[in-house]
């Protein structure tokens, strides 16, 4: 991946993008990361546009799936 004049590995990208957020985030944190309202964030989750899981009624979103949604990481080739 080309980034700012330097080629980086995808694992380095994962650790550098949204580095101030945990690996699994809440809907509120996801909305901050994407710069969207929580209403829009819930809509994305309910339409399964971003993969997630639920614990009870609480959405949990792995940061990896947010990066793949943004097409920063390619879900099919993440080991390169």
SSE arrangement:
Elements: E1 2-3, E2 6-7, H1 10-16, E3 24-25, H2 27-34, H3 38-46, E4 53-55, E5 58-62, H4 63-69
Antiparallel strand pairs: 1-2, 3-5, 4-5
Helix pairs in contact: 2-3
Key terms:
SinI_DNA-bd, 39% helix, 5 strands, Helix-turn-helix domain-containing protein, 80 residues, two-stranded antiparallel ribbon, HTH_17, three-stranded antiparallel β-sheet, alpha+beta
Quick take:
By secondary structure, this protein is α+β, with helices and mostly antiparallel strands. Helix content is 39%, strand content 18%. The model has no long low-confidence stretch (mean pLDDT 84).
How does this structure look, described?
This protein has 80 residues and is an alpha+beta fold. It contains four helices and five strands, in the order E-E-H-E-H-H-E-E-H. Strands 3-5-4 form a three-stranded antiparallel beta sheet. The chain has a two-stranded antiparallel ribbon with strand order 1-2. Helix 2 crosses helix 3. The longest helix has 9 residues. It is globular.
């Amino acid at each position: 991946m080309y980034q700012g004049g330097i080629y980086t590995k995808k694992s380095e990208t994962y650790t550098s993008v949204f580095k101030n957020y945990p690996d699994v985030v809440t809907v509120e944190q996801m909305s901050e990361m994407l710069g969207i309202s929580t209403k829009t964030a819930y809509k994305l989750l309910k339409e399964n546009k971003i993969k997630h899981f639920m614990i009870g009624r609480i959405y949990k979103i792995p940061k990896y799936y947010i990066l793949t949604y943004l097409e920063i990481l390619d879900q099919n080739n993440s080991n390169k």
